[in-house]
Amino acid sequence: MPKEDATTKDRSTVRTLLRLWPYVRPVRARIGTAACVAVVASCLGLVIPIVLKWIVDGPVAGREPGGVWFGALVVLALGIAEAVLFGLRRWLVARPLAGVEAAMRADLYRHLQRLPIAFHDRWASGQLLSRATTDLSLIRMFLAFPMTFLFVNGVTVLVGCGVLLVQDWTLGLILLVPVVPLIVVCSLFETRYSLVARRAQDQVGDLTTVVEESVLGIRIIKGFGRHRSQAEAFGALAERLRGTELGKARLLAGIWAVITIVPELAIGAALVLGTVQVADGALSAGTLVAFLSTALALRWPVESIGFLLAMSQEAATSVERFFEVMDEAEEDPGGHRGTPAESSGGLRFEGVTFRYPDAPDDAPPVLDGVDLVVRPGETMALVGATGSGKTTLTALVPRLHEVTGGRILLDGVDVADMPRERLRELVSVAFEEPTLFSASVGENVLMGAGPAGAGEPELRRALEVAQAGFVRRLPQGDATQVGEQGLSLSGGQRQRLALARAVVGRPRFLVLDDPLSALDVHTEALVEAALRDVLRDTTALVVAHRPSTVMLADRVALLSAGRITAVGTHQELLRDSAEYAWLMSGAGTTGGAR
Ligand SMILES: Nc1ncnc2c1ncn2[C@@H]1O[C@H](COP(=O)(O)OP(=O)(O)OP(=O)(O)O)[C@@H](O)[C@H]1O
Ligand SMILES: [Mg+2]
């Protein structure tokens, strides 16, 4: 997994968090204003001790009740002003920060759509899901709270220390001495906490993956009675996450203890010394009251630093995880080299080699010099043993993967030179595993129509070609919603919708990966008859396992050991290729006349 090494890498929390700037920039004025408001509010709290000092040394010492009442009213007013200002701050930041989170999520989603298939092969979906949810909320929380309050509390503590030193510098120094060890402890804490925080967030991703897989695979789990083992796997991961979270809590508890106890001790010492000084007459009672209430007012800003740092650490980890995905290169849109079209049309593979990026180095390439010409308007069946690379070859045409060598030409133009949008308009695909989205049947089919869109007649025609008459008997016809992955439809029904999607846009090139495998032979024959009509002016490459599917094709190509070893009609190949005859013989009828 690509994430593991990041935990050991050195990183600067601040530098990581600074990467958020492009997203924060548009709302910087609001956030800046909110921070200033918070600083004012927080420092208002520090004025209260000064008023107290005035009350104690003035009206209280002189026994004037009127003055005491006035002082009390001032304190009340200050308290209210502080509360109102903090409320204002919250109001100022809430909306822009929700906007920042939404913008980041939209960016992540857009980026995920454009990342190459190779990326998605490599990354567990739970890791991506947890980034789009947990990590982004952690980042929003950081922007709303720790980011402002590390600044606000820092300023408050500095101002407060100034006030303390002005009032009585000896007592002030006693309070300030413990600051040095506190800083050391905090920085130690930060390093250790960042490691655990990262581990915890990765483990949340793993857990999300297991939950997602067991929900999607619920039929298998029930069918094989695997509840227990699945629950055990989940339990083990949850236990691991719990351990990590407990480790986090232990670290937090430690830092809290230090951050709380040390200032408490210092305040105690200052109290004793101050009382002695007041008794000696070296200090006014009012000054001591003011001094101690300032020190107490500073307790919260100091204590909060522990968890503010912890939250910032978590946010930095989230930022890192977010940008791990964002930094992956998108598919390039293609179409830089405008090579002139060559005269030869159709679909051509020239010396195409391919190996999966994550395949071991010593493994032979899946495709090793594939040469094949599908003439314009021709339908070519692609036959080969299971695992021979048929799916891989079909995925290369719409550039779901990039060839590692050789080239693929559509009507004489190298697909690598075509803008991807254009390429995917030209080529329609249907894969072995028919994927339907949570949308109506009609929307699922029309998805294949490209940017120009298609209307009701095209939809009717495509459904007819795919023999998807069952759609009319669905409760709301083609407006019926099909569930996640089309679970409410049968395998053959889903395949027929996927096929309808492939043909609805009347593509020039059609690439079908075993599109009829789940149909009974009679339905398959009907689909074939209709398809032959559609395929008349479409150049098609159709992966086939059954002789009945092969019958659809004008010619057949045999893929074996990474190359095309034979091309010809079904009859010719049956006669000339032992491997082809063998592949076809196990599958029921051995051919038949065409
Ligand atoms: N994403 C991937 N990463 C690495 N290797 C892969 C990947 N997908 C497939 N392979 C490997 O490539 C080889 C060819 O797989 P492919 O799916 O193209 O076979 P196929 O001919 O379509 O088989 P089938 O008839 O069973 O559908 C297999 O050995 C497979 O293990
Ligand atoms: Mg396959």
Please give a structural write-up.
Keywords: ATP-binding, Membrane, Nucleotide-binding, Transmembrane, Transmembrane helix. InterPro entries: AAA+_ATPase, ABC1_TM_dom, ABC1_TM_sf, ABC_transporter-like_ATP-bd, ABC_transporter-like_CS, P-loop_NTPase, Type_1_exporter. This is ABC transporter ATP-binding protein. One of its GO terms (molecular function) is ATP binding. With 594 residues, this protein is an alpha/beta fold. The chain folds into two domains: 6-326, ABC transporter transmembrane region fold, CATH 1.20.1560.10; 347-435 and 507-584, 3-Layer(aba) Sandwich (Rossmann fold), CATH 3.40.50. 62% of the residues lie in helices and 10% in strands. It contains 22 helices and twelve strands. It has a six-stranded mixed beta sheet, sandwiched between helices. α7 runs antiparallel to α8 (169-176), α7 runs antiparallel to α13 (299-326) and α11 (227-280) packs antiparallel against α13. The radius of gyration is 35 Å and the shape is elongated. The two termini are 51 Å apart. Residues 1-9 and 588-594 have low confidence and may be disordered. The structure holds adenosine-5'-triphosphate and magnesium ion. Adenosine-5'-triphosphate is lined by residues 121, 356, 358-359, 366, 384, 386-392, 432.
